[in-house]
Design a protein that fits this description.
Largest sheet: 4 strands, antiparallel
Oligomer: single chain
Radius of gyration: 24 Å
Strand order of the largest sheet: 1-2-3-4
Distance between the termini: 72 Å
Number of domains: 2
Length: 185
């Protein structure tokens, strides 16, 4: 009987910190510390731990996009124009523009942030990294109605859905009637 290898022991220890194993955790830790785990048993333990659900904090730490999704939960899905003064510290290249144009959208159960660039009628989108997305969430929280109105000023379209606004009231507000209701206006 050969004892578990050092990489197996290290991996099991790592998995114990990430996975929900309940009462079995004490038994596994005791076997590890006592050196009573052979290679085959260690492989079986690893298989069981990989099948166990992740702990909540391990999920957020392992996937930075989970933190982004959480940070944007209070920010409406919409198009936004953020003045350069708000984002200068984020080391984003604004390509000579005075604004950072972004889109927050839902896909499945998550929110994603994309940079909008190109012609207004045919915009292109590029993903913004998680660190910058988290910083933008802080900037946008509480200011998102203002930034959506700025989107309208620059594009002429609805600040929420980017549709063409057809009546004067909507153009003055920068949001169509249905989108204004979503923003609580």
């Amino acid at each position: 009987m050969s004892t578990a290898t050092e990489p197996q022991v290290n991996f099991i220890t790592k998995l114990l910190g990430e996975r929900e194993v309940g009462a079995e955790e004490a038994r596994i830790r005791a076997a590890l510390s006592g050196g009573n785990l052979d290679k085959s048993s260690a492989s079986n333990v690893i298989t069981k731990l990989l099948a166990a659900p992740r702990k909540a904090q391990a999920q957020a730490a392992g996937n930075p996009w989970e933190a982004v999704n959480e940070a944007f939960k209070d920010v409406e899905t919409s198009f936004y124009a953020i003045p350069a003064g708000y984002v200068r510290a984020q080391s984003l290249d604004l390509y000579g523009s005075d604004y950072l144009f972004v889109r927050v959208r839902n896909y499945g159960q998550r929110k994603y942030v994309s940079r909008v660039h190109g012609a207004p009628g045919h915009p292109r989108y590029s993903r913004i990294d998680p660190r910058t997305s988290l910083a933008l969430a802080e900037i946008m929280r509480g200011n998102h109605v203002q930034f959506a109105a700025l989107w309208h000023e620059h594009s002429g379209n609805c600040g929420k859905c980017n549709a063409t606004l057809t009546d004067q009231v909507s153009r003055d507000r920068g949001l169509g009637p249905d989108c204004a209701k979503m923003f609580g206006i």
